[in-house]
Amino acid sequence: MMRGGVRTLIPAVLAAVALAGCSSSGSGTSGTEPVSGATDSADSGGTDAAKPVAKGMTLGGAGSPCALPVTFDLAADWKPAAVEVEPGSDLAALGEQGPVTMVCEIDAKPAGNIGYLRVWQGKPSDGDPRKVLEAFVAADPNAAEATYTQAKAGSLAAAEVGYTVNSELVDEPKTERAFAVSTPEGPVVVHLGGLDSEEHQQMLPAYELAKKTLKLG
Description:
Layout (H helix, E strand, L loop, with lengths): L5 E3 H11 L18 H5 L12 E5 L10 E6 L3 E6 L11 E2 L2 E8 L8 E7 L6 H10 L4 E11 L2 E10 L8 E8 L6 E5 L4 H17 L1 E2 L1
Parallel strand pairs: 1-4
Antiparallel strand pairs: 2-3, 3-12, 4-6, 5-6, 6-7, 7-11, 8-9, 9-10, 10-11
């Protein structure tokens, strides 16, 4: 992975297919039943999300590898790189999901895990974070068992979703989750996948750090 700079979508997608199971063959439906608290969706896999994590760089500001309308702290050793979706390319559709387009991915491999924290951004609109997340999940034909909650990302109102994805790389559905916020430059979705549910659980502290420290850029 490059430490900084803009990469085209093709290497990002190849890495995702090989390591994070983004190429899948199952099918599923997305539910929309809310649960009572934000921690319900974040803690369904165990207690790793509550464990402390060493802080690395702050992403999103001037001079960082990804220019974003928000900033947040990364876990130590996670490596960010900007993603440029080339309009009209054969793989451009893989960099778009619902109303948002991938703009940055943060690789967990240098920290010892197989997976990515990915940032997606949409165009300025009046859509609230919950609607953005619903459209994001609905655009994945392999997503199922989605639960949505109201949450906070830093001091911002946010929506959060936990769901499962069927993958041909593992024998059982794997857990994924994301949160969304509104910004003047458009909605931002921060998504955590992983090779499987165990990897996902081990990476939760990095996801929670990003959510806790998020601010408007």
